Amino acid sequence: MESSQDAINMDKGHDVREGAYVLGVDSGSLTAKAVIMNRDREIVAHSVVQLEIVSLEAVKEAVNNVLSSAGLDMSDIAYVVATGYGRRRYDFADKTVTEIGCHAKGAHYLLPEVRTVIDIGGQDSKVIAVDEEGNPTHFAMNDRCAAGTGRFLEVMASALRVPLEAIGEMSLKARQKLTISSICTVFAETEVISLVAEGHSKEDILGALHASIASRIAGLVARVGLREPVMMTGGVAKNVGAVRAIEGELGVSITVARDPQIVGALGAALFALDFVEGMSGLKLR
């Protein structure tokens, strides 16, 4: 379990420019997200771009998309904060902040009472304890194995020849309780193929896969401690089967944001606002 000092980890940052808006960018392993906010702390526009590979060009596509949606250009942006895997490589960012800090801040903006954030992304999963001001106090993270992440679900959907967007609903129709014991994606895929060969339904297999995700998340929660309310962020939060399985495992109700994929980018934009208006002593005009 890591401390709050490790969670924020800001770099020094650049000077503030003229502009009435801020931009938060979150580059994950499967998607790039961007959020623009105004001086009233309102979300003006957001963008999500699917990634084949993590690249500067793909992230800039997300930025260009969100600028276009808002009818703005970079001259309107006072400050840019980046988070995610490639955050230190993006030359357009003025400051970088860890995903832990950004997801905590974004979740707190959406649900001020939140005390536990569960984030499941493309390649990692994390559980974050949040205080009343939206600061991460401590967290636990699994970034050593893709099991139980978005990539894990993509591989399993492919193995079952089921559309990724359908697996959550299908898992809720499971009738027989099966077990997926492997913690490695490759071995879990082999188990899935064996279960198919044994004649088990796809619904039952998907039920077992989602239960295995819930079990791994429960392990992270045990390291951090569970406090309600709980919010789930990241792309896997769009999977109703994963949410229901985790709720059942933890015995709590989970809030899912309307756009759970953008919570990290939202937090980055909020950090940009804090820097412009607080640390710099300036107000956006």
From TrEMBL:
One of its GO terms (molecular function) is benzoyl-CoA reductase activity. Keywords: Iron, Iron-sulfur, Metal-binding, Oxidoreductase. SUPFAM superfamilies: Actin-like ATPase domain. Pfam families: BcrAD_BadFG. Its EC number is 1.3.7.8. It comes from Syntrophothermus lipocalidus (strain DSM 12680 / TGB-C1). Residues 23-272 form the ATPase BadF/BadG/BcrA/BcrD type domain. It comes from the Bacteria. This is CoA-substrate-specific enzyme activase. Its cofactor is [4Fe-4S] cluster. InterPro entries: ATPase_BadF, ATPase_NBD, CoA_E_activase_dom, Dehydratase_Activator_Redct.
